């Protein structure tokens, strides 16, 4: 899985465009650890910078020692690996810090009949997902960024020489892979639902919906949270579409989800193992 990291690192630059748009000084901006005891969030809260973190970890992975020198002990080699992975990030945070990542969709649904909002965060299930380890892995993820690209079609030919037009498409996902215990399992393993309804008249509901935000709060899963994978679906006679899906993800120990107002910072509801 690690073989895809260098390739996906390049894709991220084209996807988010941050490396070309941000200066070096901006890349070194320090970030604050999330305050789980806060009663509200700052106005226009954007959370920790997920794109910058995942790009930095992708770049750092190339610096991790991969082979032990014959003149060093295993303990010394392991120490070199840990030194790279445990080094503080450019943000000033590290793998043990508490992060708050703002999701692109708050899951708000409005009913004009009842004049109220409900909130449900749907999880994304990756292809070829596997369960592993002593922790409960949801095999589900929170989407931080998604991009679909329809590529130029081309002429394909099968083993019998039959030619056909093949449509090509590419999907790119930046994900938080949920690694958690039973206390934060989503209901039905499909979504998280806030036990909250917010009333609003239709005239104001459209504007209000754009202000809702959800922040995912938790810690990276150990000092090696980065994962990458590529799933390719080749065209067939019945389905002449060539599809490639790239995943770049961080294993994330989810502690809580907060529903808040992105403009004012007001926190409406907190969903956690303590509630």
Folded structure, characterized:
The radius of gyration is 21 Å and the shape is flat. Helix 1 packs antiparallel against helix 4 (about 50-60). The strands form two sheets. Strands 1, 4, 5, 6, 9, 10, 11 and 12 form an eight-stranded mixed beta sheet that branches. Strands 2, 3, 7 and 8 form a four-stranded antiparallel beta sheet that branches. The chain has one domain (about 1-35, about 40-270). It has helices at about 5-15, 20, 25, 50-60, 75-85, 200-210; strands spanning about 100, 110, 115-120, 125, 135-155, 165-180, 190-195, 200, 210-220, 225-235, 240-260, 265-270. It is about 20% helix and about 40% strand. The chain is built from six helices and twelve strands. The longest helix is centred in the first third of the chain and has 12 residues, at about 5-15. It has about 280 residues and is α+β, with helices and mostly antiparallel strands.
How would you sum up this structure in a few lines?
Helix content is 20%, strand content 39%. Strand 2 (108-111) and strand 3 (116-122) form a beta hairpin. The protein has 275 residues and is of the alpha+beta class.
């Amino acid at each position: 899985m690690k073989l895809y990291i260098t390739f996906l690192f390049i894709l991220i630059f084209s996807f988010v465009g941050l490396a070309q748009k941000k200066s070096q000084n901006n890349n070194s901006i320090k970030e604050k650890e999330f305050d789980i005891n806060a009663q509200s969030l700052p106005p226009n809260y954007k959370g920790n910078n997920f794109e910058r973190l995942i790009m930095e970890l992708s770049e750092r992975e190339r610096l991790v020692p991969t082979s032990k020198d014959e003149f060093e002990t295993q303990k010394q080699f392991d120490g070199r690996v840990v030194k790279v992975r445990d080094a503080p990030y450019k943000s000033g945070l590290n793998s043990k810090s508490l992060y708050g990542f703002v999701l692109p969709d708050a899951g708000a649904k409005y009913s004009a009949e009842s004049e109220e909002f409900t909130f449900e965060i749907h999880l994304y299930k990756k292809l070829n997902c596997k369960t592993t380890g002593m922790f409960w892995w949801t095999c589900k993820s929170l989407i931080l960024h998604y991009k679909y690209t329809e590529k130029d079609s081309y002429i394909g030919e099968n083993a019998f020489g039959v030619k056909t037009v093949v449509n090509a498409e590419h999907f790119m996902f930046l994900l938080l892979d949920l690694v958690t215990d039973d206390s934060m399992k989503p209901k039905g393993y499909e979504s998280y639902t806030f036990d909250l309804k917010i009333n609003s008249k239709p005239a104001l509901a459209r504007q209000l919906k754009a202000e809702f935000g959800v922040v995912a709060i938790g810690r990276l899963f150990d000092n090696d949270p980065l994962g990458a994978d590529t799933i390719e679906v080749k065209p067939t006679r019945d389905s002449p579409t060539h599809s490639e899906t790239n995943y770049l993800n961080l294993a994330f120990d989810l502690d809580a989800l907060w529903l808040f107002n992105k403009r004012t910072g007001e926190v409406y509801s907190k969903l956690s193992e303590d509630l």
